[in-house]
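Why this split exists: single-chain examples teach little about how molecules sit against one another. For that reason, every record in the complexes split bundles all components of an assembly together and asks for one structure covering all of them. Below is a record exactly as it appears in the raw files.
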Amino acid sequence: MITMQLNGLEVHAEEGSTLLEVAQFYGFPLPTLCHMEGLSSYGACRLCVVELGGGGSSELVSACTYPAVEGLVVRTASERVIRARRMVLELLLASCPQSKTIQDLAAAHDVRQQRFRQEHDSCILCGLCVRMCAEQMTGRAIGFRGRGEHRTIGTPYDQQAEECKLCGGCIYVCPACTLRCTYTDPDRVICGGCANLTPPCLGKPQFHDMMCFMDPCVACELG
Amino acid sequence: MSAVIDMFVRSVVEKHGGRRGALISILDEIQAREGYLPESVLRRVAELTGRGLVDIYGIATFYKAFRLTPRGKHLVSVCLGTACHVRGAPAVARALEDHLDIRGDGGTSPDGAFTLEPVRCVGACALGPILVVDGDYAANVDPAGAVNLLEARRQGEDSLPVAEDERVFPLEVSCPRCNHSLMDPDRLVDGHPSIRFTVSFGQEHGWVRLSSLYGSYTIESGGEIPADTVAHFFCPHCHGDLMGAWNCAECGAPMVPVLVRGGGMIQICSRRGCRSHLLDLEGDAEGPHQTPPNAR
């Protein structure tokens, strides 16, 4: 058992657990986006940021990847944490404003607008789909490609991967494409085509043409 | 994929074993042999290592050192680092892209002769803009000079030994004022004694050494002479002014006449980068030639 301080409270944690698990166990809410039970921690979205230590030597770390250590002093909602978290949300809004998940998170943290150049990316590179594919579906069909501003998620050579089982796990976990599945405009409520994966996918050699990836749904053409 | 490559890939993978960190070494060795990483080879590596094509493709696209497309015969790296950038490297890159018909951020020319690769700093900032052709560094390049350099490299592919090409022969020249030889046997350019002049331009003074090979434009200089500068030429022995009465037919700068041993004169244009020259050998029935020898 590890003893540490969480928001001024003395708490106990099991060896090998992460700060995120400890915080959630003790009921301190931490927003997450790239984290999911059953998948390995990736630390991409930085929403679960917490402050370690205090005074002049504190540092910000992502709770989902930081292991609980004896004697740690953790704050999950300090002023600095809140500020960093809101900045992360602004940046996420700037890159992917159409995502219902991100909109909800922003609203929950009272972020109403963002100050950066507005983009409309269809992917925030959170890697949820990559981990879902590899760890839960043992597919290994998609992965990260390139680096820096050219970094994308997809299949090697953009060809339909033999490993892809068309399970749809990647869409299920994607926080960026939820728009297609929970469309807010009543007149254009989702057609359900996304759930019906087989017909449009078959016979298309190019993977990015498939409706089951992050491109707009070819069945309903809403998104 | 040929059986030879297949065997090679197999041996490389076996050599590195199943170590998790070995992938980069494996890809590196394959690229060293093949020049790039073909898709078929990546698929084979995936099979042999059991790592999944996704991982291997991810690594191959992550590192700049790996290429997924074939490379040209010559690799040309143009430095676009900060120091080279402010010294005019973007103009050099644009000139090369236009010349080689390469669009966008590097690539291979349609004839497969050159691969242009923008790089960030090759560690010689004081000499920028830097061009690296097949591992040979060229300092202080300008757009025209860069294109010339590449063309010289292209010619080098099928160059004849100097002695066998009668268009290329060494000249021996002397000062028209003091008749002192201008040849500098202590400093070879193109493997022959160079022709030495004292030059001045603006507030700068220095020397230039020209190749004595008729047909070669190789030039060495003590300090950088900016392109298009008209330099003032002096004899290094009598310090006499060598600027002639004639002007270059192409650029209008004064020509510099010097005596050719054995009779005749050669006039070279005093403008840096202009290749115009006039060879007038006495008794030559064809009269003055209007072909390439020496450039400033």
